[in-house]
Amino acid sequence: MVKCSNCGINISEDLENCPNCGSNLVKSEEIKPVSDSTKKCSNCGAELSESNSFCPSCGAKVKAEEDSSLKCENCGATLPENTLFCSICGTKVNNVQKINKKFCPNCGIEIEDNVTFCEECGTNLVTGEKTKHEVVSTSSFAEKINLNTLIKPSLIALVVALILSFIGLLIGFSWLSFIIAIILSAGFFGAAIDNEANAIVFGLIVGLLLGLLETPLVQFTYGAFVAGFYEGFFGGHLILIVVLGIVMAYISNIYLKETILGITDNFKGML
């Protein structure tokens, strides 16, 4: 039995015309166009069935078809693109121009379709891997210098250097006493400075002051006659002491900070 598309009565399949209304059954049969419902893989173009979650040819994940039409959030009516207010209920459309837009899975920033790496966080949008960023300090050398924080450590290091120089002179080290003193004092106390720029200035201050006090310290230890002989025979070592002070403070601050600070922490713990 078939149903007449014109009057709706059930009639035999052998009849060509409906006995009730006379409609031609062959012509009146609803001819449904065959639509090409075959899905294709977006990666390799292979044909897919409705049950495929992954492409059997290349293994790519099959993306579900999304409804990209703009709908009213209040009444659900379908609206034309770029509509500002719903023509049915008058509600303001808040999701205009958000259709088919992509967002970074890491930071959530909106991205374009042809972008591979997120411009905000560097995430690879294909693999999802995050790009490692190296933190680069933008502070200049002058901006790192803080003379107020250098006064106390410079005075302490200078006193230690003078004591070591005095001891060295007493045991006969002569001018080597000042070289050893600046290496030990600048190297040890330079590790505690907060940054390398301040460490360089610290080494410059301690080395300069110790170099200027070289001859007066010899005079204090042995008298003016010996000081005159010392200066005439050995000469001053101001430049050498300053250079060693800067170099030792910088090296200690960069490479020996953890070691020296660990020693001082252990010493404090014993007290």
List the helices and strands and how they pair.
Blueprint: E1 2-3, E2 10-11, H1 25-28, E3 39-40, E4 47-48, E5 70-71, E6 78-79, E7 102-103, E8 110-111, H2 141-144, H3 151-170, H4 176-189, H5 196-212, H6 214-222, H7 224-233, H8 238-255, H9 257-270
Antiparallel strand pairs: 1-2, 3-4, 5-6, 7-8
Helix pairs in contact: 3-4, 3-5, 4-8, 5-8, 6-7
What does this structure look like?
- The protein has 271 residues and is mainly α.
- It has a domain at 144-270.
- It is built from 9 helices and 8 strands.
- It has a two-stranded antiparallel sheet. A two-stranded antiparallel sheet has the order 3-4.
- A hairpin with a 6-residue loop joins strand 5 and strand 6.
- Helix 3 (151-170) crosses helix 5 (196-212) and helix 4 (176-189) runs parallel beside helix 8.
- The chain is rod-shaped, with a radius of gyration of 44 Å.
Mean of residue pLDDT?
Answer: 80
Shape from CA axes? rod-shaped
Q: What radius of gyration results from the CA coordinates? A: 44 Å
Structural class: mainly alpha
Poorly predicted regions are: 28-36, 133-137
- Please count the beta strands (DSSP E, at least 2 residues each): 8
Report the β-strand fraction as a percent range: 5-15%
As a percent range, the share of helical residues equals: 40-55%
Distance between the termini: 107 Å
The neighbouring-strand order within the major sheet is 1-2
The H-and-E topology, N to C, reads as EEHEEEEEEHHHHHHHH
Number of helices: 9
Major sheet size, sense and barrel closure:
2 strands, antiparallel
